[in-house]
Amino acid sequence: MALPPEEVGRRIRSARVRKGWTVEQLARAMGVNWRTVQRWQAGHEKKGGVWRPTLPRVTGEKSLLRLAEVLDVPPGYLVESTNGRPGDELVHTELRALRAQVEDLLQGELEGLRALVAEQSALIEKSTALLAEMRVALEAHLASDGPARTRAHPQR
C-alpha cells in the first residue's frame, strides 16, 4: 500500500535524524536546497496560495530510490506501508546490521580468547617441564648428599 506524502515526509525526517544529519547535510548529499528537504519532510508545499501534497522529485521517478540510498534505508521504507506499522522495515534492517556488528565483535573476542588459551597452555607446558627438571635435580642432589648427611647428623 502506498504511503501518503505526509508519512513519506515523516519517514524521511526519521531516517535523516537517525543518520545524525541536519537538513542542510541531506540537502547537500541530494544536491538540492535545504528548503526542498523541508518541503519533503512536511509532505506538502504551497503552490498558488494552496497547500498541496508533494513528494521528492529530484531526478525523476528514481528520486525516492536515490533518497533511500543516501539515507541508508531500504528502498521500500519511503514508499510502502509495512503491515500498518511505519518503520518496521527500517527497524529490521537496523537489527540485521547490529547483529552483524555483534557477530564481528564476538568473532574478534573469540579469536582473542583462543590466543590467550594457547599462550596459557604454552606457559603450563613450560612450567611442567621446569618442575620435572627441578624434581630430577632435587632427587639427584638428595641421592648424592644422602650418605654424607647421615654421617654428619646421626639420628637421635
Fold and architecture overview:
With 156 residues, the protein is mainly α. It has a domain at 5-86: 434 Repressor (Amino-terminal Domain) (Orthogonal Bundle), CATH 1.10.260. The protein is built from five helices and two strands; from the N terminus they run H-H-H-E-E-H-H. A two-stranded antiparallel ribbon has the order 1-2. The protein starts with a helix and ends with a helix. The mean pLDDT is 79.
**Which strand order spans the largest sheet, edge to edge or round the barrel?**
1-2
* Main sheet specs: 2 strands, antiparallel
* CATH architecture grouping of the domain at 5-86: Orthogonal Bundle
Shape: rod-shaped
Number of strands: 2
- Give helix % range: 55-70%
CATH topology category name of the domain at 5-86: 434 Repressor (Amino-terminal Domain)
List the helices and strands and how they pair.
Blueprint: H1 5-19, H2 23-30, H3 34-42, E1 44-47, E2 50-53, H4 63-71, H5 88-152
Antiparallel strand pairs: 1-2
Helix pairs in contact: 1-3, 2-3
Concise account of the structure shown:
This protein has 156 residues and is mainly α.
Using brief descriptors, characterize the structure shown.
156 residues, 434 Repressor (Amino-terminal Domain), 5 helices, mainly alpha
